[in-house]
Amino acid sequence: MNASAELLKELRIDRKAPPPPRKGLWLGVGVAALVVLLLALAAWWWLGRPGPVQVRAETAVAMGAGGAVAASVLDATGYVVARRMATVSAKITGKVREVLIEEGQRVEAGQIMATLDPIDADAQRDLAASQLSAARSQIASVQAQLREAETNASRLSNLVRQQLVSRAQYDQAIAQRDALRAQLATAQRNANVAADQLRIAEHGVDNTIVRAPFAGVVVAKAAQPGEVVSPLSAGGGFTRTGIGTVVDMESLEIEVDVGEAYIGRVQPDMPVEAVLNAYPDWKIPAHVIAIVPTADRGKATVKVRIALDARDPRIVPEMGVRVSFLEKAPPQSGQRKPGVLVPAEAIVEREGTQVAFVVAGLKDGVGHAQRRTLELGRPLGEDREVLAGVGDGETVVLAPPEGLADGARVKVQPDAADAGNE
Q1: Which site among 7, 71, 73, 348 is 20 to 30 Å from 49 CA-CA?
Q2: What are the pLDDT digits (tens) for 130-139?
Q3: Which residues form the CusB-like beta-barrel domain (predicted)?
Q4: Cβ-based neighbours of 82, under 8 Å, separated by 6 or more
């Protein structure tokens, strides 16, 4: 009994014993606290960091080849024009069913711009297809008759040699065979004509679809669904003659009228500096394409074509422009490599060195400032020639703030539209 009692005592649960320590719980609490602390520090850094510095900027422009100083020998005014511009119309007269273009939309060559009502064209095509089917059926019928006539003529040829039939019967069979051969040739030609008519009818259906003749931008939308359009003017102003106007923006150039007394100063391939009336602070490099070999007796002027050396969406047809025809100084021996033109206010002195700040990684008007040490050339009006440190097309900060540091975030002000953002 004593042994049994001792065994029962060993099986009892001691409720006064302390619970085992829970080390995992304290470890988890510590990790969570560390994560919260890190998140708080990250939020403090993100919210407390300084915003981008507001700056003005402008694009550096390459100087002419040879690095010669360019002087204006003649100033003139003109307009931006497009060498490739087309008012697109349908080849046939018809009612517009759908117009698929809007002003400002870019279209590719062959893209559908509008469709006309195809009911008449579809009916003509179906009729031509039926005529072709009938012509081909006629060919099959004549071919069957011709096979029978050739067999009959061959049989009578053997019989006439044996003098079993008359020569007249044989001649009649030969004549019938030859007539059927002629009918077959006629039927085949009729089938070819019907096939040509079907192709023409299919072209008629295709003519109800108006396509862009080349890639460009739509500058005018001239028709609406339900209107009647025609390639020829019907008079009275009730019939449209076009669907829309497309301009190839890659063909833009400048046309200016130069007085006869000054045309001798202009030469082909002469460098030109163009300034749009809409953007008076933006100097666009250009050059003379050709001098049109005829004069306007009423205005006593000669037309000059000028090519734009820079392409930009801001340049649109019919813009007014002022141009300066430039003359290069004669090259000198040991001439330096040409640099870029940078506004003088973009160049500042830091620690005894001439520097400029270039905006890198520009996106949505925000980028990072990069400090560049400059090798300067000649002053050119309000600009300065930079031989090294800044490249063509790079965006430089105008009047950099004293506290602007290398790598600082900057935001280009909206009025600095000509600060390259490509």
Answers
A1: 348
A2: 888 888 888 8
A3: 254-326
A4: 247, 248, 249, 251, 252, 253, 317
Q: Please, are residues 292 and 302 in contact by the beta-carbon 8 Å criterion?
A: yes
Lowest mean pLDDT across 201-210, 241-250, 312-321, 396-405: 396-405
The tally of CA atoms less than 13 A away on the side-chain side of residue 164 is 7
Cβ neighbours around 39 below 10 Å, total: 10
Is the model's pTM score more than 0.70? no
Residues 271-305: tens digit of each pLDDT: 999 999 999 888 899 999 999 999 999 999 999 99
Coil, strand or helix at 226:
coil
Report d(CA 383, CA 288) in Å as an integer: 24
Task: Please choose, from the candidates 385, 400, 285, 393, the residue with its C-alpha nearest in 3D space to the C-alpha of residue 340.
Answer: 385
DSSP track, 255-308: EEEEEGGGGGG--TT-EEEEEETT-TT-EEEEEEEEEEEEEETTTTEEEEEEEE
Cα–Cα distance for residue pair 50/44, rounded to 1 Å: 12
Q: What is the mean pLDDT of residues 51-67?
A: 67
Give the range among 34-48, 183-197, 248-262, 270-284 with minimum mean pLDDT. Answer: 34-48
> Bridge-partner residues for 379, per DSSP?
384
Q: Which domains does the chain have, with CATH numbers?
A: 53-64+337-412 (2.40.420.20), 70-83+249-328 (2.40.30.170), 85-117+208-247 (2.40.50.100), 119-191 (1.10.287)
Q: What b/e readout covers 203-232, taking b as 16+ CB neighbours within 10 angstroms?
A: ebeebbebebebbbbbbebbbeeeeebbee
Burial code (b: 16+ CB inside 10 Å, e: under 16) for 247-270 equals bbbeebebbbbbeeeebeebeeeb
SS3 at position 221? strand
**Tokens read off for 11:** 């099986």
What is d(CA 346, CA 58) in angstroms, rounded to the nearest whole number? 9
What value does the mean pLDDT take over residues 226-231? 86
